[in-house]
Amino acid sequence: MRKVAFIFAAFLVLSASAAEPKDTIDGRYFRLFAPTTFYHNIANKSLSIEPDQTSDDPVAEAIDAALLHIYLNRPDLVNTTETELQETGNVRADVNQPIKNQVKLVEKVESPVIDMPDDVPTEIMIQKPKFWTKKGDGYLQFMQNFVSDNWYKGGESNYSMVGALTLEANYDNRNKWKWDNKLEMKLGFMHTRSDSVHKFKSNEDLIRYTSKVGLEAAKNWYYTLQLLAYTQFTRGLKANDLNTYSDFMSPFNLNLGLGMDYKVATKDKRLTGTVNLSPLAVNYRYVDRLDLATSYGLDEGNHSLVDFGSQVTADVTWKINDVVSWKSRLYAFSSYKRAEIEWENTFTLRVSKYISANLFLFPRFDDSGVKDDDLGYLQFKEYSSIGFTYGF
Description:
392 residues, mainly beta, Porin, twelve-stranded antiparallel beta barrel, 14 strands, 44% strand
C-alpha cells in the first residue's frame, strides 16, 4: 500500500511538471523524497473557506495534493511534523568567509558628447486634481411598521413598502476647505383594510438637505457653517380620518448653525461620521396650512416662526462586521421657548449585494406640539423591512 501511495504521488507531480525544462535540479521535489512530513500549510489550505488560496505554481499544487493524499489515506507513513523540523533547526551551518574581490583597473574612457539642440519641444501633462467625490445609495423595501398614536406627522401600524434615495457630493480642495452636501429622500405608501376613507396614504415621507462649509482649525476639527432644510412630499393622514396632519411645506424647517464640526474616524475605519456643535443657531419654521400652525408651535393665524438657540447634529455609521451595520443620526435644537430632539437609528443586515433587511427606530421629543395624555411630548416610530438595495 505504501508503494501505491508513493506511485500515485509521483504520477501527480510528474504530470504537472512534464512541460517544464529539466536543465537544473528542482528543489520543490524535496518533500516527496524526504521522510514523510506533515506540513501545516497543506492542511490549512484544504480547510480554508477563502476562495483565493490557490497557488499559481502547478508543480507545488501537485506536490501538495500528493502529500494530502498520503495524510488522508496512509497517516501511518508520516514520520514527523513541520513543527518538529523547526525545533530541530537547520541541518547545516553557514560558513562566513570574507569575499576578496579582485579589482582590475582599466583606462579612463571619456563619455561621448551628444549634441542636443537648444530648443527641445516638450509637452507637460498636468492632471487636474479631483476635488469632488460623489456617491449614493437607494433601496426599495417591504416592511412592518409601528407608529404611536400621537406621531406628529400621522400614520398607522401596517404592512407597507418604502423607497429611499441618498445622494452625496463632497468637495475637498486639500487645502483646509471642505464643502459637504447630502440629499435624503424617503417615500412610502400603505393600504389598510380598516381605512374606508383613504385607499393609499403615506407612512414614510421625507425630503432633507444638509450642507456644511468648513475651514480646518486643527486635526479633525473644522469651523463650520451648517444649513439644514427638510419637509415632505405629500399629505400625512390617519386611518378613517379626513383631517390632514402634515403636508408639503407644512411644516418646512430651515436651520442655520455656526460652530465646530468634528470628524469621527477610528483606525480600522469601521466607525465614521461627523459631530456638529453649533452654539449659535437659528431655526425658521414655515407652515403653509394655517389650520396646522398650532400643531407645530406657531401662534394661530401665523405661517412662520423664528427661534434662536443652540444646535447639535451627529451622523455616525458603525460597520459592526461585514454584514451588519448601524447608521445613527442625532439632531437637537434648543431655544428659550422649546426643545426638539430626533434620534434616527437604522440597523442593516446585508443578505447579499442587492438584498438587505432594515430595522428603523426613531424616538422624537418636541415640546412645541400638542401634549399627549399617555406619552406626553415623546413620540416613537419603528419599522422593519426587507428588500432591494443598491449603492453607487
